[in-house]
């Protein structure tokens, strides 16, 4: 009986030791350094110029073309308080939409190059630091049955759409979504890091919902991202910018 008990204890000790070895061997894989990063404040002063595009039934008249967009002095009180004395410092992106018929209509909200050149309306993409875990944004809704998607491009050029949330609610609300683990944000070979790039938002209308006239407001688009990088002997040689500098200097010799 005693011998059997000793065998069980010894087996348990071996299992614990094996577990410690495995955790130690793969410690870098589970180490995280989570940071909340504001990708866009929608305050109108980030240097990003936002543009709109829409599906074919967007209303167009001699006076107006929809959707329309502007920055307004409005914000979620839950984040910024009432702050009435500094109304010029806080803004939100306002979208005024209208379609001629119901259906799966959409409005794209995308960052552009900006400026006065011919290609000023060409889209650009916003790089996201680290490996994204979650995304969230404050949205003002007026109880229309619409939903919002966020589009990201991975290092292989594949664009992924993530459903950020339904906006069938009244007033300001923080909507969020996790980034699926099947979206690749790391290479097997060096350099490991291969971050995502934000492409655009898309607002979808449901076929049963009225689309004659509606307003939506965006504020503070954020990402919870893991910025941890393991250090190793020669890790600077996995930095593409540093490698370019080394090779440029080498070619001059």
Largest sheet: 6 strands, antiparallel
CATH architecture: Sandwich
Mean pLDDT: 83
Helix content: 10-25%
Specify the number of helices.
4
Radius of gyration: 25 Å
Domain unit count: 1
CATH topology: Jelly Rolls
Full CATH superfamily name? Galactose-binding domain-like
Classified by CATH, the class is: Mainly Beta
Which ranges are low-confidence, i.e. pLDDT below 50, for 5 or more consecutive residues? 11-28
Tell me, briefly, the overall form. globular
Structure explained in plain terms:
The protein has 253 residues and is an alpha+beta fold. It has a single domain (32-248), classed as Galactose-binding domain-like (Jelly Rolls). It is 17% helix and 36% strand. The chain contains four helices and twelve strands. It has helices at residues 2-25, 27-30, 77-80, 240-251; strands at 34-40, 49-54, 68-72, 92-97, 106-112, 126-127, 131-142, 146-153, 159-166, 170-178, 197-205, 214-226. The strands form two sheets. Strands 1, 3, 4, 7, 10 and 12 form a six-stranded antiparallel beta sheet that branches. The longest helix has 24 residues, at 2-25. The radius of gyration is 25 Å and the shape is globular. Residues 11-28 have low confidence and may be disordered.
